[in-house]
Amino acid sequence: MESTPEAMERIHATFRRVLSDGLRQDAVSGASGEQIAGLAAAQSVTNLPGALHQVYHLIGARSALWLAGSPFGTALDGRAAKSRALATLARLGDPFADASAMYVLVAYGERTFHVIDGPDLSTDDPPVWLISEDEAVIRGWDAVSEWFSAMAPDVGLYRERLHLMRQSGDPAPPWARHLTGA
Description:
Elements: H1 5-21, H2 33-42, H3 50-59, H4 78-92, E1 103-108, E2 112-116, E3 128-132, E4 136-141, H5 144-151, H6 155-167
Antiparallel strand pairs: 1-2, 2-3, 3-4
Helix pairs in contact: 1-3, 1-5
């Protein structure tokens, strides 16, 4: 599915902002069309929203500090994540129009998931829901482009942490290699 110019611009503006804040461009890499099709197939969905295609084209193969510590894109075992999300949803109550057709964007351990409801997969920039075990199911973001912006790393905060670590004599952590001039 093609992304609307508005959604595409919001996503690219977020990406450009994070790069200009100091994330190294070579720290991230996009997924190919074939890889994106494989991500959809792993969760038994036939199409993905255009906005999500844009996100995957930018950071779907390697997301660096974006969603740090959580499998995303090609690193996510979509089949297993969807199974766990559906099991969690069964315990919490299901507000979705078609949960069996939902798509899991990211899984934080086995307890928290960001998902798109099945019928919304045919829209360009659909809402993203948060499923959190033992808590709730909520509509977390009104659009994939909004979610992408909310998940963007705070590069300034990473730089501040690195500065404090260096002042304390601590070695640079592995994530420091993702920052320009680090």
